[in-house]
Write a sequence for this structure.
């Protein structure tokens, strides 16, 4: 049966920019949630000091939870090979970080959708860079997971592989036992596309999942699709909300995942309106997982 993890979506600025929340404070807050794990983020300010890595693992495990997966954002589509080499070196450090924390999954991305890039160039740059990291990951028992992503906060351009056809082309280009997909249904809406259609195309490669929900604050799905790449829609039309109350069809998602034997981690990217909201999302997902995987 899939396991649940939580991600500090509501506290990212406090943890990564302002330093107004410590990682230990987040661990303590999350200890009240009925989940088995905490998804980690490489950009927490305190993660810059490697001495903190084993300490945080011990703190999390002291609450009866584990750190199964790492969220990070390599940029593998830069046309300069030296730039890509630096990103590969960063990714290897994040693999080390994941390993030290006791995790099994470390995210990769394609990179930025730079205007001068052709489709074939972008796929080749990203696939070659991922392949350059895979032996290092395999030696440490880590699986690299690529997410259908929208845009890293610090990037100029959206994700190169944001659109379904590009994402699927990149996934098909990397065939390795330590590589799989981290499926995020909400991000598909940001691309103006159908999350179930994407899932059916990649479900045999899905090893982890991000669970969240989005609702339309204004306009319609069609309005969102008219906006290039969903980029403007991210800012204006779509809002994060409580899981089970938004656009995502979790019955359809879990039916498809169960049919492919999925049994991995589902990390909750929610709680932008507080810990009570996050706790309600946990309860919703627990019920849905029990319903689909054990027929309860």
């Amino acid at each position: 049966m899939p396991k649940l993890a939580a991600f500090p979506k509501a506290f990212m600025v406090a943890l990564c920019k302002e330093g107004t929340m410590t990682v230990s404070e987040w661990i303590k807050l999350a200890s009240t949630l009925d989940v088995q794990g905490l998804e980690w983020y490489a950009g927490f300010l305190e993660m810059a000091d490697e001495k903190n890595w084993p300490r945080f693992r011990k703190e999390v495990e002291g609450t009866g939870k584990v750190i199964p997966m790492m969220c990070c954002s390599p940029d593998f589509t830069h046309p300069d090979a030296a730039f890509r080499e630096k990103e590969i070196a960063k990714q290897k450090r994040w693999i080390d970080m994941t390993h030290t924390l006791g995790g099994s999954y470390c995210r990769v991305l394609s990179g930025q959708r730079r205007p001068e890039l052709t489709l074939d160039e972008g796929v080749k740059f990203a696939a070659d860079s991922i392949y350059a990291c895979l032996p290092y990951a395999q030696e440490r028992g880590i699986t690299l997971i690529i997410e259908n992503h929208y845009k890293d906060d610090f990037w100029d351009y959206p994700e190169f592989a944001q659109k379904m056809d590009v994402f699927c082309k990149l996934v098909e280009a990397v065939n390795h036992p330590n590589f799989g997909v981290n499926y995020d249904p909400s991000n598909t809406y940001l691309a103006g596309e159908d999350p179930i259609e994407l899932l059916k195309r990649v479900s045999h490669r899905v090893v982890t999942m991000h669970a969240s929900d989005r609702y339309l604050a204004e306009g319609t799905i069609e309005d969102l699709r008219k906006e290039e790449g969903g980029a403007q829609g991210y800012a204006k039309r779509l809002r994060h909300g409580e899981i089970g109350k938004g656009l995502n069809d979790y019955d359809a998602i879990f039916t498809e995942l169960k049919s492919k034997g999925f049994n991995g981690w589902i990390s909750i990217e929610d709680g932008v309106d507080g810990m009570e909201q996050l706790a309600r999302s946990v309860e919703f997902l627990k019920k849905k997982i029990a319903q689909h995987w054990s027929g309860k």
In short: The radius of gyration is 18 Å.
